[in-house]
Structure formats: structure tokens, C-alpha cells
Write a structure and sequence with these properties.
The complex is a heterodimer. Chain A is mostly helical. Chain A has 5 helices and 2 strands. Chain B is α+β, with helices and mostly antiparallel strands. Classes of the chains: A mainly alpha, B alpha+beta.
């Protein structure tokens, strides 16, 4: 958790995440979007890579960065499974309790 | 029943009175029968909601609405999680809202469940939108 929170705590890194959310970009393209040196951008990218919020694809000598959108999809699947299983169990348990109360 | 981006919602008919269902939503011993392995529940506005959903994965938040036996809402996020489930970190405590609305129906209860304010992008987790949402939640806590 700390790696992701740390990565997201910085406004520049959040802007980089937005830039690479829909399409992958090179470090050069990202740097061009900011008044920032390449080494600073590389520093931010390494924090984002470490947090797994950003993934990299290597093609020959170039590196393309993109946001890890699958993480949001996995979060959603986890929650849907949790609530579907829990609501099924809630229904079964409350109905059993009600039958017990009415003595049937 | 239906899902939109940023929200999960379900409708379930339960053949039990709303009061019975409400007890199962707010009493730790009754909750243990359908969700979680350890519970700290203070069902009053501002009270704590803490449920260890499975070993090492703890959901935390605060109640924002407690109106027995028909309405219940609390904020929801993950305070702890297993390392391999790191995506749960995208939903920190207080980040989202869980609501249960109970309606008497045919000698039973129609339960409407909604889990909203879910992040749609990783960036949203810390955005302006979230600040506005927090302000709205704070407003619901005022008498």
C-alpha cells in the first residue's frame, strides 16, 4: 500500500499517470508535456514503475510507458465477488433466522 | 442488479422482516454469519466500521447514516491487505460509500445495495473529485 500511496502523493506523478492512462508514451513525450528535465521525469517514472501503477514495454531501444489500468479492473472484480458472495450469505442467514423466530 | 462505472449495485428480496435484516447488518455476532472474521461495529453516525473480511484484509470506514430498520450507510476502504492483493490499496479507508436501503415488501424485505464512489482511474483516488466527495460526506454527518 505504501508504494502506491507514495507514488500518488505527488501532483507531477498524478499528471504523468493521466498522460499514460489512455495511450502509452515514451519518457521523451512525457518530458515534453512538462517544463522538466529528462532525469526528473525518469525519477518519477521509476517511482511509478516500482509502485506497479505504471508498466513499461520495451521495443528495440525505446521504452513505452502506460498506466496499469488492469489494477482498477481487478479491484472491481474483487469487490463484486465480495458483495455477491456476502449478499447471498446474508439472504440465507436472515431467512433462516426468521424461520427460527416464527418457530416453523 | 446493475453496474455503472464507479458503482456496484444489487437488489435482493429477503424473506425476513426489515428489523431482522437490519440486525444482521449491524450486530457483530450476526454479521459474522455472512461477512468477515472479526468485527468492530459502532452503528451510529460517525461510529467506526471495521471488519476483517479475510485473514489480513481489513475494511475500514465510518457510519454516515444509521436509521433502523430501513437505512444504513458507511464509508468503506481497505486499511490493511495482503501484499498480493495490492490493488486494494487503490481504495483506502473512507474512499468509497456503501449503502443498504430496506423496504418492506410482501411480508419480507427488498434490500437495495449500493457501493459507490469507486475509483474509475488510478488518478481519481487522490483527485479534486474525491475532495468534493469528502465534503459531501462531512455534510451528511451534520445534524
Amino acid at each position: 500500500m505504501d508504494a502506491q500511496l507514495h507514488a500518488l502523493s505527488d501532483a507531477t506523478r498524478r499528471r504523468i499517470l493521466t498522460m499514460v492512462w489512455r495511450e502509452e508514451r515514451t519518457a521523451g513525450e512525457i518530458a515534453a508535456g512538462f517544463a522538466m528535465s529528462r532525469p526528473s521525469v525518469s525519477q518519477h517514472l521509476s517511482v511509478l514503475l516500482e509502485s506497479k501503477l505504471v508498466a513499461v514495454r520495451r521495443a528495440k531501444t525505446r521504452r513505452f510507458y502506460r498506466a496499469n489500468r488492469e489494477a482498477i479492473e481487478r479491484l472491481r472484480s474483487e469487490l463484486e465477488a465480495l458483495w455477491d458472495n456476502s449478499l447471498d450469505a446474508l439472504k440465507a442467514q436472515t431467512e433462516a433466522a426468521e424461520r427460527g423466530k416464527s418457530g416453523r | 442488479m446493475s453496474d455503472t462505472e464507479g458503482e456496484i449495485s444489487r437488489e435482493v428480496f429477503i424473506a425476513a422482516a426489515p428489523a431482522t435484516v437490519f440486525e444482521y447488518l449491524t450486530d457483530p455476532n450476526a454479521m459474522a454469519r455472512w461477512i468477515g472474521i472479526a468485527h468492530r461495529i459502532e452503528p451510529r453516525p460517525g461510529g467506526e466500521f471495521r471488519v476483517e473480511i479475510s485473514r489480513g484484509n481489513v475494511a475500514r470506514g465510518h457510519f454516515t447514516r444509521v436509521e433502523p430498520p430501513l437505512s444504513l450507510a458507511f464509508t468503506f476502504g481497505w486499511g490493511q491487505h495482503e501484499p498480493h492483493l495490492w490493488e486494494l490499496a487503490l481504495l483506502p479507508p473512507g474512499r468509497s460509500l456503501v449503502e443498504f436501503e430496506l423496504e418492506p415488501r410482501d411480508s419480507g424485505t427488498l434490500l437495495r445495495f449500493r457501493h459507490s464512489c469507486l475509483p474509475r482511474t488510478i488518478v481519481e483516488m487522490h483527485g479534486e473529485r474525491w475532495s468534493r466527495h469528502l465534503a459531501r460526506l462531512a455534510a451528511t454527518l451534520r445534524p
